[in-house]
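Onboarding guide, step 5: your first structure request.
Type a short instruction followed by the sequence, for example:

Predict the 3D structure of this protein.
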Amino acid sequence: MPISLHTFPSLARVPGLLHGVTDRRGGVSAAPYDSLNLGLHVGDDPRCVLENRRRACDAAGIDPERLVVAEQVHRGNVATVTARDAGRGALDHSAAVAEADALVTADRHLPLMALSADCPLVIIVDPERSVLGLVHSGWRSTAAGIAGAAISAMAALGGRPDHMLAAISPCVGKCCYEVQDDFIDIAVHSAIVKADTYLDRRGARTFFDLPGAVRGQLCEAGVPRRNIEASGVCTACSTDRFFSNRVDGTTGRLAALAMLL
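The system replies with structure tokens like these:
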């Protein structure tokens, strides 16, 4: 099966930007990582993962050996990367950019990759200033305010939040993201402004709108709401197309890819 890269209309109109989000189809990994697993850190055969990365990067038009990947430790840290970082995490997860969950750059021809199996991945670009960000915004990183931190890091490179466009990948939706009291307590005392507005109580059960919270943080950081596009696809509802750790437990990772030309 050929690889499908899911793109966002708003980002597709940006000259000099390559981007895409993979699904789980078109790779060589065996179950439970079937088949286009792009994560080197989940127990899959590394040879399969590297072949999958080659295929995904070929579809995107980028060099897989120049990928820059964050370690993704579910915190709020942002790393600014340059051409000197090309290849970090591309072939070996231990070489990924340490302690970071978001990468920003103003360098061209430097492909960024982020991985997920339910967490929102956010591609952010300032088309006028040619500044790019890629954020892994799981709930802990969202609670730490990572979207705003990434916008600030992009501003330090010359970007203007009011000029930025952002796109939120397929991720677990409010329909499926059930949370417990400990999560609720952390969320309402976190960097998520008005966190209670993202809670959906259904009798004794509570669900959380994680992509909605990410959108809210982008707006708080100055990105116009009209400039934020979300896929609207829930990974937990669509395990035939996407990896979901919440549903499947041990599973693969999809990726968001982005590069300035």
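Each response can be followed by summary notes, for example: The chain has one domain: 9-171+223-260.
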